[in-house]
Each structure stands twice: as structure tokens, then as C-alpha cells.
Fold each of these.
Amino acid sequence: MVSVLGAGDEFLDLLERTLAADIYVRGNDIQLTGTAEAVDQAERVLRDMVAVSRTGQGLSLADVERIAAMDGTEPVSAAELLTSQVLSHRGRTIRPKTLNQKKYIDAIDQHTVVFAIGPAGTGKTYLAVAKAVQTLQAKKVSRIILTRPAIEAGERLGFLPGTLSEKIDPYLRPLYDALHDMLDADAVPRLMTAGTIEIAPLAYMRGRTLNDAFIILDEAQNTSMEQMKMFLTRLGFGSTMVVTGDITQIDLPGAQKSGLTEVQGILDQVDDIAFCYLTNHDVVRHPLVGRIAAAYDRYDAARARATPGRAPNRLPGRPT
């Protein structure tokens, strides 16, 4: 019961605030009262919590919140979602935590090119790197290639001190961080020296054909249309491409069009290409991150209403 109700009944307190049914606990028995619909929902949530607990992986407050938020119409149960696994390293398991993340992982398994579009903290890059490491370890590819455009708000490469390599490193740091979470500390430099893992700015992709590789383009909202076309046409035999980005955080200068924004209309009907959209509900960082992103969405929508002809930067179907 402690694993289901939480230490100090913290999970129970969350369920009482979230669910419409009344929950009464007596020893090892839980009684639910309320409308038939409310009781059915509460029973489903508790059964999923018990199923996850029986796997031995344990529940967190965030897990319970996600289980309670599911309405029961999803194609997979909360228990199936929270116990699926992408990669394990030193006792730590990386798994999708929301339904959209599960769809994203499945799309990578089923398609050659996958686009993941969504706000910060939804696991776009992290899950892609986890799939890349899993695919490499399973010997389905011979190398991993991680790339980003070297464009950020407020400064450019020329303003940073050091050699070209030292200038580029800060832009690629999130990719290094993800790799160090999934591989031993000494394995990353060894694999990079051997060429098994390559981390490079997008400009280094020009003129290449990338065979037998798992290729990730991160921060793709900062690619031009020409850069996006150049990257996608690098695809070789036996390779998988994952393109991630947030179209609400475009740092391109002037009125330059984002390659990630435009590619949705160009490739959405092409076979073997999948578009996955993640929303604020898929944010798996601190809960405040999701609320911050939602507040910015509301701000963008309000500005769009106040300025005729201005469209908010948001995903198709994304709540405001």
C-alpha cells in the first residue's frame, strides 16, 4: 500500500485533488464512491498504479500525475506506457513518460525519417539520442552522427574566444550531456576518437552521404530551407534520421524562413516520413517548465488577436 499511496500518503493526496471520486482507505482496502464515471476513472488509475508498482520500478509523484491525466481512451494503458523501455545504463532506465513520447519512439522504429516538433523539455533530443545509442548497441548501425546549426540568440561564433573547435563546443553541449547520461564517461571520448560517434555543426554535413548511421539534427528550427534540404539529402542506405526542433524558438536573422516550419508542408505526404508533435502536456522537466511554456502560448495567442494578420508560433492542434 505504501508503494501505491506514497510515503506520507502523497500519492493519495494527489489523487484526492485530481479525481472526482471520493477515496477511502482502510488497511489494505480502498473504497471508491461517487458517480459511475468517476468511480470507473478512479478504479482505472489505481489499477494502473498497482500494475506499475508490481514491476518493481516504483512510482513518482510525476508518474501518478500522468496516470491520473489519462482518460482511458489511449491505445496503450498507463502501466504499459510507464513500463516500456528504451535504454538502461547503470541501473537507470530511459523510457517514454507520455503517450506522445511513446508514439515518437514507435515512429523512429517504423520510419526512416522522423520529425519531432515541440516545446522545450518534451524529451525530443534526449529520447532520440537514447534510440541512437540503443540502435548502435544492437549493431543495427555502425555510427551515430549528431549535428546542430551553430545559431543562437544574441551571439555568433566569431564573438567566442578560442579555436574553431572551442567555438563550436558550447552549441553542441546538450548532445554531449545526453550521451554522458547513457554511456560510461570513458566510452564517449573513445567512441568519438574511433569515429563511431560524431558530433559536428550542420555545415560539416555538406557534400557527404551518410550510410549505416543514426543521424540526429537538433534545434532544426534554426535551419534555413536550403540547409534543411541539404541535410535531408545526405541520407544514405541503412540509415535513420531524426530531426528535432521547436518552431516557437526560431533564432534565424531577419525574415528568413525556418526550414523546419516549411518542411511540414513539403514532406507531410511522403511515405516513410513521420511527423510527431509534442505539447506542453509532454514536458518532463520540472512541472513549472510546462506552465511557463503554456503562459508563453497564451501570450502569443493574445498578441495575435491584438494584431490582425499576425499568427502565433504554435504547433498544429497545440492548446493555448
Amino acid sequence: MRRRTSLLVLLFTLFASPAFAQQPQPKQIWDSKGWVQLGEREVNGKVDRDRIEVGRQEGQFKKLTIVVTDSDLELIDFTINFGDKTTYTPKLTHFFKEGQRTRAFDLPPSAKVITHIDVKYKNLPGGGKAKVQVWGWKTGDNAPVATPAQYTAPKWDQTGWQMLGERVIDGRIDNDKIEVGRYEGKFTKLQLVALDSDFELMDFAVTFGKGPEWRPDVKHYFKEGSRTRSIDFPGDERVIKQVTFKYRNLPGGGRAKLQVWGYQRAGDAPSLPPGKIWDDRGWTNLGERAVGGGRKGDKDKIIVGRNEGKFRKLMLVVLDSDLEMIEMTVKFARGEPFKPEVNQFFRESSRTRAIDLPGDDRVIKWIEFRYKNLPGGGRAKVQVWAK
């Protein structure tokens, strides 16, 4: 059933991922400014029915959203009853993860005052007792400001997961591609992670080494710091050739980042010699630097030059400790410098995606970094590989 359901967002503030090596403070599930909480109910039993009384004193609303806390649940039915005896049942049947919320769905234009909301739902096996909050966006200019709901999200267990790539969303509507390839091995599922700002994912397609293109239903608004559920692939383990996106930043927000992670079962990852964290066949090691400096970080440069030849791609490998990569600049023999989007936290023994260089094969003069070790860690090393 999970493969047939549409995708909603699991919001959290702490991942065991490179981009979340530092523990942030608990952050709000969503910006509740302008929203009114109409009620909250706790899910009891295998299948439970509840009613949230609203009433005339609450006024009229033009849209609603649902927030799930404390545990996972399956929402079976959701019916809104208006004062003129009409009802509205939005298509919301779905499995919800703790910390998720629905999109803001519009109420019918002719809708009157909401008298009550009927909900049918159930807790999922092995979980706790979930709570459901219903929030309404009030019509008029005097909508009260609700207190943001907060929670501390669970850690994401990254065992078996590998980051396939990261892209920064430019412009109102942007199209991007992440090349993966056979050397990465086979995967059984994907997960998407949103960083730095909110965005809307409009289209998402996966091209495998064999077989037709696959488009999971993941059209959705993502909040900063959220991730999807695990999206299972059709069929058995698959070699991913590429992943393509169509997305956009939301008005008033910053430039969001989207990370794609793939899950490999034990034995599916490529067999590598001891001590290696990736398959470096076909890659050239351009140099290695140890990260020094204090709180403000360190600057380093790797001189490459014409004798090394021309390259199309770069990859960074982090060894010995965790670090924060602040900035990276690639200077070519000709043309403008290139600054790839690699501003993130890296775990020891992690690596970046394969970073495509702009244009055709390029001679690299030098590569400059600005980075720093993380508090409490050792001195990290950064290797630069090119292909």
C-alpha cells in the first residue's frame, strides 16, 4: 500500500547526515502564523472515530491543514461539516509519519461556518498513540496568530544510505539532474532531504540502467529540514542512471537545497579494497590537505596545472574527522572561476557527489578551499579527485 500512497513530508531538525553534524535547537514543524488551531485529538485503538467541534464563534475559514504528532498513523476518512448542512471530504487518505503535515487544502468557495469535523483514523502497528491537530486559515484581515507547535524530531538512521547528490534550486522554476551510474551499485529505495529553505517539488523522475523511466508521486511543498519517507523502487534492486527534478523556491524564502539519498542492502554496494570508501577507478588524486585553524577555519590551495591534463568532474573525500566545508573555488587555465555548491557538513569517510565542471574538458590551475574542523573533533583531511 505504501507504494500507492502519495508523498508527504516528515519534518525533523536532527539528522545523522553530513549536513546535520551539529545538533540544532528544536525547531517548529511549520510556520503557524495566521493559522488557528481548531482542535486536537488522540488516536485510540486500531480504528478510532473522533469529532472536533468548531462552531460559529470561530468564524469562517478558507483552508485547512492537518499536523500529526507523537506517532505515525493512517488517516482513513476526514469530513468537514458546515452550518448550511453541506459537507466536504478532501482526498486525504494517507499514512502519516510523526511530525508531518498536509498541504494547505482549500475549502469550497461557497463554504459557510464549520460546525464540526469528523475524523476516522488508526495507529500503526508497533507505534504509539498519535495525535492529530487541525488548523484553519481564517478569512479576513484579523486572523489571530497561533503559537507555533514544536517538537524534537527523531534521528535519521543512515545505515545503508548513501548520498547520491545535492542540488541548489535557482530561480522560480528550475530543472536539474543528478548523474549516478553503475559504479555506485544497486539501490532499492530513495529518500529526499530539503535544506536551507522551503521549496516546491513539481516533478521527479528516476532513470534506471535498464527499463522505463519511473516517476513516483512526490509533488509536494517541502519545509527546510524535512525529508520524505523511503520511496521503494518498482521491482528488485536497480542501478540508477540519473535522477531529474523540476522544482522552485517559494516566494520570500532563500535558495533551497535538495539532497538525494539511495539505500543499498548489505552486499549491494560495489566491492572495494580495504580502506577505500568509494570506487576510485578512472579517477586521479589531485592532492590532499589537512584542515587546521581555529574557530574561523582554514584556507588551503591545491596547485594542479597543465601537466595533469584535462578533467570533466571533481569529487571531494573527507578522512580522519568531520568538517564544515564553507567554500570551494576551482580556477581554470582559461575562463571564469567555478564555485560549486558544497557548503555543508561532512562526516568522516564521506564524499561529495561527482561535481560536473562547466563546459568541456578543462585544465585546472588550482583548487582553493575554505573549511574548518568541527568542535570536539580531530583534524580532518580533504582529498580532491578528478576524472
Amino acid sequence: MTKIIVEELNRLGHVTHRHRYHSLPIKVGRAYHNDLILSDAYVCPEHLVIDEADNGWQIEDKSNQNGVKFKRHSEHSHSNQLHSGDDIIIGRTRLRLFSPWHTVPEAHTLSVDNTLSHFISRPIIATTLIITAVFLLILNAQLASTQSLTMIKLVAANLPAFFVVLFWGGLWTFVGRTIIHRASFLPHFIAAVLLLIASLLVATLSSYIAYTLNDRTIATLFEFVFMGIAVVMLVYINLSNSTHITRSARLIISHSIAWSLLLFGLFMQYAAQPEFNPTPEYNAELKPPFAQLVPSKSPDAFLTNSEWIFQVDTDKALRTSPSENLTP
């Protein structure tokens, strides 16, 4: 029957090894005659002995250097006596002692969020999404150019987008490693690739909306709403893989981050516009015939409808003109 369980922990608190012992005492050290052999240069050949005590275990320090440090999690632990869940540090090795009847927390409930992350992390799905993103980037760069681009120029034009995707995935991987001590780069990277694909599709649809309706305002509103939803989904997936916060908290944080970023970008875009633009931009990109849902106007009709721009209020001009220029 198991009397004690000894866990070896790394610096992040993860269990690297778990040992079960059916009898006490237990000798711990670097020498090969010990019951628990540690490959730590700062641990003595015979470092300590773990033996039974009243409702716990007694630690006997046999080292001649470095000693034993205690991290007690039980209110009843004192001196060299430890209870279930307490830690000891010898050299650079951290050990935690448990009784077989130690209470463990309830299991976490599997959520749809983790299922989605696992789905997009499958090799076939991830490879398909990456190839799709590369194809759309190359196609977008080629269509936006007035001349045929070489493969080197196409790759160079799209490298910044992939650097941003890699940075975003690496950033959230670092966050997950820091908060929950688990690194999962692929789900974050593929989620960012999905956002890249969505942004390319939304930009294309937005250009068709602006061309069809001859109104950039509606197209901008379309981009803002759909990109906001896409960024909310991205941040939600990132939070699901990097934190243990509740679903409602993830929703609040993802919406706050996404809409704040988009509103800031919209504000900066508006602030950068001059008060008077002598060379205004028009939706002049060529589109296929099926995209023209609103009939275009002929040059004559445009000039006829724009005559009021060139009309001058004669009376106002006479009132504001110098008197020497007026004829009797």
C-alpha cells in the first residue's frame, strides 16, 4: 500500500516526475544507493531522509552543504515535520510530498472553446488555412499591381503580414506560458491566420460595396463591423488557450480589446484626413461588369448635375467687389 508520493517539480511548478513509495524511510540524494536518485549537481550524495512522524513525515538533513529549505502549505507543519502538500527544496530541486488520500480539486469542464482550438490545430486544417492565406495574399498583391510581379517581389510584399501573424502567435504563447504555464503556439498562430484571411476577404467585399454604391461610408461601416467580430473571435480564442478565466470574463475582455483597437484605428484614420483635400479620392478601381448594380452616369449627366458648383451669386460678387472695378 502506498504510504507517500513524492513529486519532482520544475521552476514553473510543473510535475516532471512522480514517485510512489510503499515503505519508509526514503533516502534522497545523488548516490545510486538512494531510494530517490536526483541528477542535481547541488544535491549531496546522501542529502536527506524522509521518515514517518505523527500525522506527517520527518525530514532528517544529512547534507554537509546547501541544506534543506522548507515551503510549508499546512498550518500544522513545524520544525522538520511536514504534512501532505508541503514542499522541500534541496539544491536546485523542488520536491512535494503527498499522502495517497490528499484531496484534489474538481476536474475542469471541457468547453467548446478548447474543442475549436483543437480542431483548427489539426495538421490538415492548419496546413489548408496557411496555404489559403498565402494564395490570397499573392492574389491580392498581384491584382493590386499594374504589372506582373515576380515571385520574389510577391513574397517580399507579403512577408510583413506573416511577421505580424507570427508575432501575435508568439505574444499569446508567452502569455499562456506565464499565466497557466502552458505553451501552445499553433492554436494562436492559426487563429491569427484566420483573421488574416478574413481581413483579405472583407477588404475585397468592401471595395465591391464602395464600387457598387459609390459610397465609401457604407463600405467603411461594413469593414468596421465585420473586422470587429473577427477580432473579438481571435482574442476570445487567445484568452481560451492562455488563461483560465470564465467565459463571461473572456467575452468582456475580448470585446473591450477588439472594439477599442478598431475605434482607435478609425479615429486615427479620421484625424489624418485634411480639412480640405484638393485632390479627393474616388472609387475608380476596375471591377467586372456583374459588380455594377447601380447604373453609372454619363459625363454629360454628371456635368449637368454639377452646374450649381460653378454658379456664382452675381449680387454677392458685386457687393464684395472693390468699387473701382464696378461699372456705372
Amino acid sequence: MSWGWARTGTALCLAVALLGAVDAAPRDPQAPVKKYSGAPMDLDLQGADLRMVLRTFAETNGLNIVIDPTVKGTVDIKLTAVPWDQALDIILRGSKLGYVVEGTVVRVAPLAVLADEEADRRKLTDAQALAGTLEVKTFALSYAQAAKLEPLIKYAALSTRGEIRVDERTNTLIVRDLPDRLAAAQLLITTLDRAEPQVEIEAQIVQTNHDAARELGVQWGVNGRVAPELGNTTSLAFPNNGAVNGRLGTQSPNDPRASALEALGTAIKLPVATPTSALGLTTGAINGALGLDLALSALQRSGKGRILSTPKVTTQNNHEAEMTQGIQIPIQTVANNTVTVQFKDAALKLKVTPQITAANTVIMQIELENATPDFTRSINNIPPIDTQRALTRVQVPDGATTVIGGIVVARDQSSQDKTPGLGNLPLLGWLFRHDATQSESRELLIFITPRILRSRP
């Protein structure tokens, strides 16, 4: 056996710090690499007695060391220019040894022996901590529910000897344990049993409608006759007389003095269905052989609408709240000669669960539905339900307003009915056409505003 290192005179406290923890568990590859600062040494050992090697380390580096009687074995190692504290660490780990510091003395023993001693020491400490007289204390809660607080107190504050019971009638916790554990339980209960702030959530549903329509229509009535009494016969035996008129119905003049012959047959019928303005023109020959009737009808419409719904609800932190306003529509169904009635909600509904954060913001799980019945399109007296719904989770600062949803629907429609050929005439084509244009737009916006309501002390 040969040794080649310089005596360092290292103090015991420094040597212990350099040795580091030694255990049987595998090292974490991501753990920081241990640094060694001992003097470099060359070490070449073959079959050396382990106890003698440890004693030599102690004598050379000024360590007070006690070697457990169970430490046995030999050392086979060859190192060059390795810090002495690293060399000692390698020897201890290779022999499954550990150490404990007791005052100024380092005690080296197998890891199993040290583990057993540590377990016995902990058992003794726990037994001493659990020694004492148990006391009983009651805690009347103001805000928290005793049944929900019971498992938390039992887990975080009570000892293995402790017990806890709940009196639901008075919302009281009855705790039996050691005095120091009762003090810990009281501190925890004081922290948890406090008033939670409330949150007022206001939603605004803004729906705007805009529609415009424009129509222009025309009707032509024609009646032409060739007859002997009019003096305009054809001078032929056949055809000697005849008539040309429209076949889309008749247009009777509004003048009560007009005769039946002045009722003209409609040849071009392209009117506006529900006009807001109309103009008529009737002309005829002196002998009644020819009559023309012209009716122009027009429509122009525009409209705007705005619907505002503002549901508002207040609830405690982390508690769901729901508000509903509307009607229920009965729906009858017949099966096996049995009539059953089911009710379908057509209502404004706001359901929200707020969560107040430490940054004074509110996280909200929101379900908002605005359902209105449309009785103008009823089928079997059952109206369809026009529904707008938003389901989302947002975070909003206290008192701020955010848009959680929006829908924009726009529709433009145009149509043209005309008489073939005549409807395409330049400048005059409108006299033989029915033009209609219609535009409609709908916009829906949903706003949400939370306000934290803190109780005054």
C-alpha cells in the first residue's frame, strides 16, 4: 500500500462539509454535480483493510472519527491527482457506508445501521411529541360549513391521537387533541372561516335590426274592338268584327260613370303586392274602339330596431348562480291515444360561476341563453324559438366590461319580373318590369361585467 498526498490540517467542520451526504439511493442525473476542494492526492490500494484506510484518512486530515464495529472489508482502488475528500467519498459509497456528525466527531457506519438508528430516533421523537393530556375545544363557525372543514383540520392540524366531530345543528367543530395541536387547529380555522366576497355579474344582450325594401311595379290594361256599331268594320264577311284585350283579369275604372265597355283586360300584370303609392292613367278612343289603362305602384320601406336585455345576478365566490326570465311553451304529443304535454323554455337565462383571483380579476364560467318565441311563424299553434346562446370561460378585471360573443348576419336580395322584349327597351323598359330590392342586417353583441362586492369589516 502506498500513499501520496500532502497533509492539509483541515478542520473537522470543513471536512464534514466536503464529504457530503452518502446514501444507497441512486443519484439523480439532473442533480448538480458535487464539487470537491480537498488537496490532490495519489492513491494506490490493493487489499487494504477498510478500517485501517479510514483511520489513516482521519490521522492525515485531522478528523475525529469513530468507526462502527460492523464496518469490515477491504479496499482496492487506484487514483491519481484526485481531491482527498472525493477519494474518501468514493471509498464510503463503494462500501455502502454513511456517516453522522455528533458534535466534533464523525461516526462512520453501514447505511442500514444508520437508517435503523434514524427510524428509532424518529419513533422516540414522535412518542415524546404525542405524550401529554388530551384536551377538548369547540369552534363555532360563522361562514364555513363544519362538515366540509372537518377533513381539512384532521389532515393538517391534528395528531394521530386527535379526534374531531361535527355538530351540524350549530355548525360547530368539536376537537380533542394535545394543547399545541389545538392551537394549530384554531389558527387554521381562523384562516379558513372568513367571509367570502360576492360577485355581481351583469350581462347585456344588444340586438339591432335594419331592413330596407324598394319595389316598382306596373299594370297595363288593353281593350280594342272592331265592330259595325263603331263604324270600323273590316269590310270582310269574315272576320267582320273582333276584339283584342288582356287576359290577366280586368281592371274596372274607379269612375262610377264609366260603362262596362271601359273595363279593360289586363295584359301586363306586374304590380307591387302591398304598395304604399300608386298612380293610374286611363285613355280611350272617342268611339270606344280602343282603350289603354296604366297603373304604376311603388313601395319603399326602411326600418330599424334595437333590443336590449340586461340580466343581472349576484353570488358568492366559487358558487354557481342562475337567473331565468321568460315563458314556457306547452307542446302536446299524442301516443297510444294518450295526450302528454311537455313544456319548452323560451326565456332569458344566465348561469355563471365566478372565481376571484389574487390579482383582483374574476374568472367566470358563463352560460347565457336568450330564447324568444316567434308567433308569426307558428305551426299548429306552436311557435318556433329564436335562440342565441353563448357558453364560454373568461377572465375579466373587476368592474371591466368585455364582449363574450357577437353575431352579424347580412342579407341582400334583388329580383326582376318583366315582359319579354319590352322589358329590355332602353329608357322605357321600366314600364314593362317589376323591380324589387331588399336588404336586411342583424347584429348581436353580448357584454359581461363582473363587480366584486367585498364586505366591510
